[in-house]
């Protein structure tokens, strides 16, 4: 039977500092072996009252993306069970 759509049931963090240093645990189902996790900060999630941030946000929107930054990572395979 083919797997369904990946679904996150629980996660240990909702947000964290941009420089990292924390572990994120995700509990879910239907994750494939080549699953990767994408971390990003969107223009909507930052303080739009900051002129520098607003300028970057506008540039990103013009470029067709709402992400100020984005990083993709692979989960530890020892914790990824089928």
From TrEMBL:
GO molecular function, one term: DNA-binding transcription factor activity, RNA polymerase II-specific
Domain of life: Eukaryota
One Gene Ontology cellular component: transcription regulator complex
Residues covered by the Rel homology dimerisation domain: 7-44
Pfam families: RHD_dimer
Protein's UniProt name: Rel homology dimerisation domain-containing protein
Lineage: Eukaryota, Metazoa, Ecdysozoa, Arthropoda, Hexapoda
């Amino acid at each position: 039977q083919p797997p369904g759509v990946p679904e996150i049931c629980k996660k240990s963090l909702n947000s964290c500092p941009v420089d990292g240093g924390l572990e994120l645990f995700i509990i879910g189902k239907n994750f494939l072996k080549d699953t990767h996790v994408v971390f990003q900060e969107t223009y909507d999630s930052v303080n739009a009252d900051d002129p520098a941030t607003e300028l970057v946000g506008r540039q990103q929107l013009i470029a067709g993306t709402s992400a100020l930054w984005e990083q993709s990572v692979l989960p530890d395979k020892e914790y990824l069970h089928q």
